[in-house]
Structures are given as structure tokens and as C-alpha cells.
Amino acid sequence: MIGVVGAGAFGTALAIALSKTGKDIVLWARSDRQAHEMAELRCNRVYLPDAPFPDGLRVTSDLNEVTAATTLLLAVPLQHLRGVVDLLSPGDTPLVACCKGIELASGKGPTGIIADTRRDQTAAVLTGPSFAADIAIGRPTALTLACADDTASASLQSTLTTPSLRLYRTTDTIGAELGGALKNVMAIACGAVMGAGLGDSARAATLTRGFAEMQRIGSVFGARPETLSGLSGLGDLVLTCTSELSRNYRFGLSLGRREAFDPKTTVEGAATAKAMLQIARDANLDVPITKTVTALIDGDTQIPEAIAELMQRPLKEE
Ligand SMILES: NC(=O)C1=CN([C@@H]2O[C@H](COP(=O)(O)OP(=O)(O)OC[C@H]3O[C@@H](n4cnc5c(N)ncnc54)[C@H](O)[C@@H]3O)[C@@H](O)[C@H]2O)C=CC1
Ligand SMILES: O=C(CO)COP(=O)(O)O
């Protein structure tokens, strides 16, 4: 049995995709009301109303029901991952974090957060270019499964691959996590550029220099270049910086247009930009786009000043 902890868009989509293969899947929602509603309607009305649940997909709000799982997917926003891990009884079930970001309080990514309290438990991360809505209706999608232990990784890869969800594996958890976290920051930047009406050329420049910033950060923290140029890095960067289906991109659009944005929407890049800026300061790293995104979110700058500052930086080699 596979347990999916978190019945938001991503957890629900993964539960549906895996359940379609006939596997025994239990989806855990933290509220009784949501679990009951999903069980009754056989869909997640709030997050994925157009994706009916396969008959075999079970729904619960009782964490005990997922304790027998042989694999646990943790699909909650990154800033809540630590709290969710703490709710689970310790054991030897592999924990697969399905979230993207850097924790503000610790500067850690998903596997680092899990290792803080579950050092002996296998920790992996599932990341890459995929909108929940696409996965839920069975559109073809390719993702990265990162786990330091290659034997566990190969087993998880085969367990979680479906005819429409193709997983590539890597032992480079740092690269996969950094790619997934930082692409959201760059998506906010690209959204802001488009929202301010600066045009497609400016967005392409932001995306490309954003990727250069990701590579600079990655090289300092030991990420492999091929991971950053793979699905979890460049792949997800391209998707998120160019599609209005992305919440990070839409948040950026609202910043660029100076419009309000629903604070209840999950926007992982906002906290991650702050966390990354702190890490970069400590490591004496130059991260101009991350710094600009943080300043825009905090209201410390506006687009015209931010662009002028970026354009007037000292000239250098590419
Ligand atoms: N939505 C998407 O298309 C994709 C999302 N992701 C990642 O998946 C992660 C989760 O995002 P979504 O499912 O999209 O978010 P969401 O906003 O759709 O749902 C978040 C879920 O987490 C639950 N949650 C929030 N705080 C919690 C807490 N303290 N304890 C337990 N549960 C809590 C909420 O009840 C909700 O069910 C994020 O890191 C996101 O980057 C990754 C790929 C695609
Ligand atoms: O991570 C995603 C696509 O791979 C989803 O992006 P958003 O969180 O910006 O919606």
C-alpha cells in the first residue's frame, strides 16, 4: 500500500495516477470534513474538480490508516513538511517528499528536513515539471526521483512509475532539491517581468540569467550540473516561467501589475527566495534575481527601479 499524505492539488493528482494502475492507495487529508467530502463526491472538489477518483482510491483523515504503507508520499507545502514528518510514527517506510522549496527556519530542503528527525529512514524527493492537473487526467509527464541510496531509489522508481508518469532517478538530492526550489523564485521574477509589460525578450533574459544563478548556487553546494540541466532544474524552470498555470508565475504577474494576490494560494518561491537570500549572504554568493524577488515581495523596490539596478550591474563575461 502507498500512502499519500496531503490532499492538496499535487497529493491528490499523484494518488489518482497511482491508483489508476490498480495499486492500493490511501490519500490522507488533515481535515475530517475534506476527507468525507472527497469520499462522497469521489473527487477533490477544491483542487481538482475535473479529475474523478478511480474506484480503488481510499480517502481518510486518520493517520493510523497510512502507517501500514510500504511507501509514503508527503505532498504538503515545504514550510509544513517538518510538522507533517513529526506527526508520523517512526519506522522504516521510505518517505518521499513531494514538495519544492527551502525551509526558512533552517535553510534545509526536503531530505535535510526529514533527516533531522529520521536519520535512519530512507528519504527521497519527487520533483520536476508537472502540473497536478496534467498528472490527474493522465497526460504524459516525466519527473525526477532523487534519493542518496541508489538501491532504494531504483525500487521507488519502479514503484512510482506509471504508464503516464515516467520517473528518472538520481542520487543527487542536492541538485534536484535546489532546482525545484529555485525555479519557483525565477518563475516569480518572470511573472513580474511579464506583469509589468516588459515583454518576451526580457522574460527570456530573466529565465536564462535565472538559470545561471541556479548553476552558480548549485556549484557552491555540490549539485551536479546534469541534474540542474535535467527535469528537476531546467525542465521545471521552463515550465514554470512560461505558463499561467503556475501559481508562482501568477504571483509574479500580480507583483508586476501591482494587483492583490490570494494569500491562501501556495506560492513556494516566496519563502524560498528569503531562505536562499540568507544562505547566499552567509556564503558570500551573488544572487541578484533572488535578491530582487525578495525586495519586490517585501515592497522594498518596484519593477522600474529593480530593472534599472539589474541592467546597470557591472558588465561581465557570460
Ligand atoms: N500543484 C502542482 O501542480 C504541483 C505542486 N508541487 C509541489 O507540491 C507541494 C504541495 O503543493 P500543492 O499540493 O500544489 O499545494 P496545495 O495548496 O494544492 O495543497 C496543500 C495541501 O497541504 C495541506 N497542508 C497545508 N498545511 C498543512 C499542515 N500544516 N499539515 C498538513 N497538511 C497541510 C493542505 O491542507 C492542502 O491539502 C508544493 O511543494 C508544490 O511545490 C509539485 C509539482 C506540481
Ligand atoms: O511545480 C510546479 C510545476 O512543476 C507547479 O508550479 P506552481 O507551484 O508554481 O503552481
TrEMBL record:
InterPro entries: 6-PGluconate_DH-like_C_sf, 6PGD_dom2, G3P_DH_NAD-dep, G3P_DH_NAD-dep_C, G3P_DH_NAD-dep_N, NAD(P)-bd_dom_sf. It is an enzyme of class 1 (oxidoreductase). The active site is at K183. GO terms for biological process: carbohydrate metabolic process; glycerol-3-phosphate biosynthetic process; glycerol-3-phosphate catabolic process; glycerophospholipid metabolic process; phospholipid biosynthetic process. GO terms for cellular component: cytosol. Residues 2-151 form the Glycerol-3-phosphate dehydrogenase NAD-dependent N-terminal domain. NADPH binds at F10, R30, Y47, K100, A132, R247, E268. Coiled coil: none annotated. NAD(+) binds at G6, A7, G8, A9, F10, G11, A132, R247. It is found in: Cytoplasm. Its main location: cytoplasm. Its EC number is 1.1.1.94. Pathway: Membrane lipid metabolism; glycerophospholipid metabolism. GO terms for molecular function: glycerol-3-phosphate dehydrogenase (NAD+) activity; glycerol-3-phosphate dehydrogenase (NADP+) activity; NAD binding. Catalyzes the reduction of the glycolytic intermediate dihydroxyacetone phosphate (DHAP) to sn-glycerol 3-phosphate (G3P), the key precursor for phospholipid synthesis. Belongs to the NAD-dependent glycerol-3-phosphate dehydrogenase family. This is Glycerol-3-phosphate dehydrogenase [NAD(P)+].
